[in-house]
Amino acid sequence: MFRAEIIGCGVGGACAALAMAKVGARVQIYETATRTAEVGGWVTLGPAASTALDQIGLGEKVRAAGFPVVGVSTVDTLTGRTNSFARTEPGHRWSSTHIWRKDLLALLREGLEEVDIPCEYGTRVDPGSRTGDLLVGADGARSATRRMLGDPREPTYTGQSIRYGHCRAVVPGLPTHVLHFWSHPEGVAGYVGDDRDGSFWFSRRSVASGAAVDPEVFLDALRATPVMRVLERSEVSAPIALYELEPEGSWHNADTVLIGDAAHAVSPAAGRGATSAIEDAIVLAKTLRSADSIAAALESYTEVRRPIAQATYRPGPAPKVSAEDLRL
């Protein structure tokens, strides 16, 4: 048995704790936010994340709390060109699961409590002061653990901002469980709906760094789509600037490792943030179980996960993740 300390109890940190406990670690988590801190927005988990969550016994609960996304429909509003395709893949009951982030975190944290993994909420710790055999930095895009490893980079602004919305009603006439996208010269708008959970939509557009922008311009793109029917009844976020951190620099030393946004923060536009963090957690636990030493495990983890993270930043289809890498 080895002792692991995790900084951060978000999606990646909680998954890492559950996965490492399964391979024999004694785990302690520290989280700067309070237990009741607001966690907004929603996530769409890809098929690999579903496989990974099954490994820690939470796949069925997460799928039940969310809803399946089985297709994609796109419209180029400038040219009128349309496209659609299924998102299911062989070996998966459905390809993606759409879920409130707060519900996902609640299930993960309930899982921690069920197996007696302690988490100290509202606690800020110095990564250099840890006492365990392994330190896992799951402390987000502005990670103190990453700085301790000698990488002083800060996330960079993508040049885009976004607004999110939710309505209890679905949009009449639009198929549910399908991601709908409408691209336009300044960005893209999107929507997915479910009869139980309602409408989830976003509007993302280019905004110069530091520029003042009228929040209403984000909604203009949606007024030209069927989503206009639920706009007035929606709860809408303020504009949120989007940042990212490319997967470069050092991810580990002999006894410290980065996962999730601490290693490779992607813009929400990529739809990979939570999925990647979950995948990182399972791969890390698997390499810790099979390697001869913690140092060797961290090297193997980086060799597996860095190419996947790098592929997210290149144009083209989503990176392919080996199902075998995600089985404990």
UniProtKB/TrEMBL annotation:
Q: Which UniProt keywords apply?
A: Monooxygenase, Oxidoreductase
Top-rank taxon: Bacteria
- Taking every annotated instance into account, which residue ranges of this chain make up the domain FAD-binding? 252-312
Tell me what this protein is called.
FAD-dependent monooxygenase
Query: Which InterPro entries would you find in this protein's record?
Result: FAD-bd (IPR002938), FAD-dep_Monooxygenase_BioMet (IPR050493), FAD/NAD-bd_sf (IPR036188)
Query: What Pfam families does the record point to?
Result: FAD_binding_3
Organism phylogeny: Bacteria, Bacillati, Actinomycetota, Actinomycetes, Mycobacteriales
GO terms, molecular function: FAD binding; monooxygenase activity
